[in-house]
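Today's session is about reading a structure prediction critically. Students often jump straight to the picture, but the first step is always the sequence itself: look for stretches that repeat, for charged clusters, for runs of hydrophobic residues. Only then move on to the predicted structure, which in these notes is written as discrete structure tokens rather than atom positions. Here is the chain we will use throughout the hour.
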Amino acid sequence: MNYLLQKAHVVAPSSEYHNKTVDILIEKGKIKSIGKNLKSNDVKIINSPNLIVTPGWLDMRCFIPDPGFEYKETIESALAAAALGGFTGIAAFPNTSPIRDSKSDVLYALDKAKGKGVELFAVGAVSDNLEGKNLAELFDMHNAGAIAFTEGKDGIQDDNLMLRALLYAKGFKGLVINLPNTNSISQNGKMNEGENSTFLGLKGLPSIAEELMISRDLFLLSYTEGKLHLGPISAKNSVQLIKEGKMKGLNLSCETSILNLIFDDSVLSEFDTNYKVFPPLRTKADQTSLIKAINEGIIDVVSSNHKPENIENKDVEFDHAKFGATNLETFYSVYNQYLSKKITLEKWVDVVSVNPRRILGLNPIKIEEGEMANLTLLDPTLDWNYKLAEKKSLSSNSSFIDKKMVGKVVGVINKGKVILN
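Below is the predicted structure for this chain, in token form.
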């Protein structure tokens, strides 16, 4: 079927149609025409009171525990949830069972996502079985289609492993992604270390655990001249370290998580485990610094940090609850409701579309005639309820369940497929 987007306001800084309201005719997945008052036979009309079209979004951090823990999330359910949140692509981390540390594991993920409207980009493990010791077969995974390499939720603790990973990946221009956290300092922590953790009687996660690893990684990056992506970062001092690293000309990028931009550690006063995430929610000062860093271009990417958990891991005492929240489905609405007055949509497109594709070595998306359509369709004025019965994710560890959301993803278009919400 062919589609006609009517009166769509384009937000795509690199496009000649940026900030213009146009009709977009899509035939067989390709942008056939862009103009005013377009007409065509046998098309499905897509319109909305305040329709916005942007290049398709890409989430750089998703924990999809398939295979191994499909009761939490499958690849299929994650891709459906991603479409609801505005994504046409997601990077799936290797924390699966078995661990994604071989060519066959990469091919499994890519094959299972084949033919979907939302693309899956497989991220491979840096070490065998994520044990942090021996370097995994990075080159084999790269040849199989792995887009980058990481230790996922644990971070690369061993200095020599990080050194070897950066050097080895450099040989094929591979990207290493690292969560900056020094386990020996942060171990057994439950929330940000500070006044609130003391008041609540919870062991703190000090920001120095994040900052110390960033410092180490920047030294190793300078030595190896490799390519490194750090995140999510959560602390004010981390921003300064990243800024200094970029000023030195290092091949460095970084990200933060959307929840770290909208909540601070004061929301934990009710011990709601859906706010127990990693990196932890920190102070208002940290939050303000992160937003400023996005606007200044120091932080390149905002991710969902989507980590589904079953009720047995969340409906427990705070101390015993697992870290993580499901963030894919509400991603755009959360931005629109909490952040749109602090970060322009143009800048948001940079950090959720333009920069992720650049960092991962993917071709930029062009909103031009003759190009394949890879688009995210939004309406900031639509209201909807994030109902438990209607969610796409298999897990419900979200603080937004059954809440009214302002701003909705109308749909996504990619790979010749149109997914309308």
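Discussion point for the tutorial: The longest helix spans residues 208-224.
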